[in-house]
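2024-03-11 09:14:02 INFO worker-7 job=invfold-0412 stage=load source=structure_tokens
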């Protein structure tokens, strides 16, 4: 074995969605802010995304998170989120995976029954509360970046579907949220292929037809995910529930309920008067994993009224790996074939 590079990764999953956490072998990128560091990775050091997430080391079904020192004094650690085709400002499942790995590997001290700390994501500070017992994390709750509605019932002209109404909202990424029932879906596993095909078309239409720009950071822009959402239901006093399938590029469904989508949906539900501050929103995925969310504050983002969401879910460490690059490997940055079922 002859490697010219070796990277240590701790794999975890948050309610079914895999997030690889890079713990060694990569130096922190330059930048005065976490967003600048993210932009450097995106524009000057994209090799890491290709190396870890392309085949043969990846398969387009996971994300990666690079742990770096924070740039703000309030934060205990920073992380850069690297998804298959983009570098989002925020991700709920990746926050849960990163927080779980930081605590369960001892990179941050674990305190039982609760550990509180602050992560710095490219999109802003994320306050984390981890419920811990017997040396492991049983649940991670994080207070997300402010989430807001750009448009309700925006008409999209979608290839093969005609006019589709979509709520456009930000929860750390920009989403087109569409009514599953109106599209003929129940958000069931046997619908996965058709949901992906439909969702990719809606995302393309929304990206082209809707102006979605973060008013405080214009480098965060454009709808990149469609959430196919089932109706909201009552689930007892002070509790509502639903489910959604989030279609992510290059063409698959997020296995978890998607923390940023859950936050965007909270913003929409609150704007419509369907959920009040403090009520619990139980959001389930297509594989029936769940996030519990609630509105814990109100603010504004530019001219948009916004909510501050708290989202809770579970993470599990599933493996520790060392990936290497042999100088004779003909695929140093991997490869990708667009042969997924929905691509």
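2024-03-11 09:14:09 INFO worker-7 stage=emit residues=343
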């Amino acid at each position: 074995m002859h490697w010219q590079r070796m990277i240590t990764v701790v794999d975890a999953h948050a309610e079914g969605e895999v997030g690889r956490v890079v713990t060694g072998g990569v130096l922190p990128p330059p930048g005065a802010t976490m967003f600048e560091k993210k932009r450097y990775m995106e524009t000057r050091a994209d090799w890491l995304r290709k190396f870890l997430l392309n085949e043969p080391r990846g398969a387009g079904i996971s994300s990666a998170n690079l742990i770096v020192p924070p740039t703000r004094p309030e934060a205990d650690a920073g992380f850069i989120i690297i998804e298959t085709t983009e570098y989002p400002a925020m991700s709920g499942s990746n926050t849960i995976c990163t927080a779980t790995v930081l605590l369960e590997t001892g990179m941050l001290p674990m305190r039982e029954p609760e550990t509180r700390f602050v992560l710095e994501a490219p999109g802003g500070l994320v306050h984390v509360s981890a419920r811990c017992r017997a040396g492991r994390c049983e649940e991670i709750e994080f207070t997300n970046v402010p989430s807001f509605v750009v448009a309700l019932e925006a008409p999209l002209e979608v290839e093969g579907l005609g006019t589709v109404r979509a709520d456009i909202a930000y929860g750390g990424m920009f989403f087109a949220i569409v009514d599953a029932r109106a599209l003929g879906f129940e958000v069931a596993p046997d619908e996965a292929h058709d949901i992906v095909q439909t969702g990719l078309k809606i995302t393309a239409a929304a990206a082209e037809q809707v102006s979605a720009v973060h008013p405080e950071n214009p480098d965060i822009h454009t709808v990149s995910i469609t959430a196919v959402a089932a109706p909201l239901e009552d689930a007892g006093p002070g509790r509502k529930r639903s489910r959604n399938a989030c279609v992510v590029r290059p063409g698959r469904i997020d296995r978890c309920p998607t923390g940023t989508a859950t936050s965007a949906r909270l913003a929409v539900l609150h704007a419509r008067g369907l959920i009040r501050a403090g009520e619990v929103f139980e959001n389930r995925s297509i594989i029936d994993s769940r996030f519990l969310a609630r509105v814990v504050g109100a603010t504004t983002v530019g001219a948009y009224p916004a909510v501050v969401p708290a989202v809770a879910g579970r993470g599990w460490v599933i493996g520790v790996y060392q990936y290497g690059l042999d100088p004779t490997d003909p695929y140093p940055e991997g490869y990708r074939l667009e042969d997924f079922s929905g691509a």
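2024-03-11 09:14:09 INFO worker-7 stage=report msg="The helical segments are 34-44, 47-53, 92-104, 192-209, 259-271."
2024-03-11 09:14:10 INFO worker-7 job finished
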